[in-house]
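Q: Hi! New to this. If I give you a protein sequence and the SMILES for magnesium ion, can you show me the bound structure?
A: Yes, paste them in.
Q: Okay, here:
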Amino acid sequence: MSNVIEDELMSSSVIKNLNVLDFDYAPEELIHRDEQIRFLAQMFKPLLSSVSQNAIIKGPVGTGKTAIAKKFCNSIVNIARKQGKIIEYVHINCRKRSSDGMALLGVLNHFDSRFPDRGFSVPEMLQVLRKQLQKRDAQLLVVFDEADALVKKSGSNLIYDLTRFSDESSMEKIPVSLLLISQKDVIPMLDPATISTFKRSNALSLNKYTRDELYDIVRQRVELAFHNDAMNEDCIDLIADIASEWGDARFAIELLWKSGIAADHQHVEMVTPEHVRAAKAETYSVVTESKLKNLDRHQLFTLYSIAKRLKKDGTAYVNTGDAEKTYAITCEEYNEKPRTHTMFWNYIKEIEGAGFINLKPSGKGQLGTTQLISLPDIPAEIVSNKVEELLK
Ligand SMILES: Nc1ncnc2c1ncn2[C@@H]1O[C@H](COP(=O)(O)OP(=O)(O)OP(=O)(O)O)[C@@H](O)[C@H]1O
Ligand SMILES: [Mg+2]
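A: Thanks. Here is the predicted structure of the protein with magnesium ion bound:
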């Protein structure tokens, strides 16, 4: 047995640097985002004259929002320092810190890692923050990443309070700049007083990566992470093709990583398209299986009906009326009584909440409550097969 363990642990890998495939890793050079980084530089240029700015970045998953914000903010800190100006840059992940207190504590921890995590109210913490900045003669640049989580849970109070730091009316003006990052547009979620501090022009909107952009991103990552010649050329094309459906760089890099692992498991020296296909299959199953197990029987019937319908019709959308008919048939197949229309509607809402389906209002000429259902990122075939297995 110990030989087996040693063999596996000591076996060679196609990957030379695993860290580079980590979710949090961002390469020195961000591909195809020069223009967007230039735009950030234009927006935040006033900071070098100690004038604060507020801005937002929005864009779908894996489009480089976090990576370009970090890259830009670190650069402006360094450039300001050369000019004798101190910018304190703090990056807060609001998914992890979604209350005002937690988010603000994250900011204070930048200055004092042992700042107590309880016992201080938000106004007191703001006071401490003011003192820290005065003491250092510094300005502050806060990035609220995944800002929608903060605003959803706690409203826009903290954002408003921080913008007030640099307000003309406040006693001692300290430049505090905010960068809000989110997949959705957060501006409409803010209250009117806070919205007015965000200029309409200070919004950077990122698009999904195209297939060719993903190709370049994956190619760069291959060079950083894999041994020379460990990656069959076709693999990069295939990964770019697969990921282009979502335009998501993170998904592309995850596929790359899993392809490498698949090759290692077979103790071969080169990653081939077959490993990529295996990685793709596994990526689906991880996403769906763990989440599918949380659904109850009728939610599964509902999802199954939608997937079956989409597969059969070959369409992008199925309307709720057709889905309900298929649901009734599915229930019969499994010898169960279909639940009421209201219950069915709840199931639809629940599986939408869990991220399995998207809903949008149907066009004119349909009944008022009819909606169109689509599957966001999993082929209908895979969904119906997996649900079928679970229903057995
Ligand atoms: N232009 C790029 N060049 C190289 N790597 C990139 C580029 N854009 C994104 N990446 C890589 O893709 C992954 C996802 O990027 P990032 O975390 O910035 O996405 P995001 O838009 O913040 O996504 P989310 O909405 O899920 O937070 C990271 O590993 C990042 O390093
Ligand atoms: Mg991000």
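A: The pocket of magnesium ion (ligand 2) is lined by residues 65-66, 145 (CB under 6 Å). Let me know if you'd like me to explain how to read the tokens.
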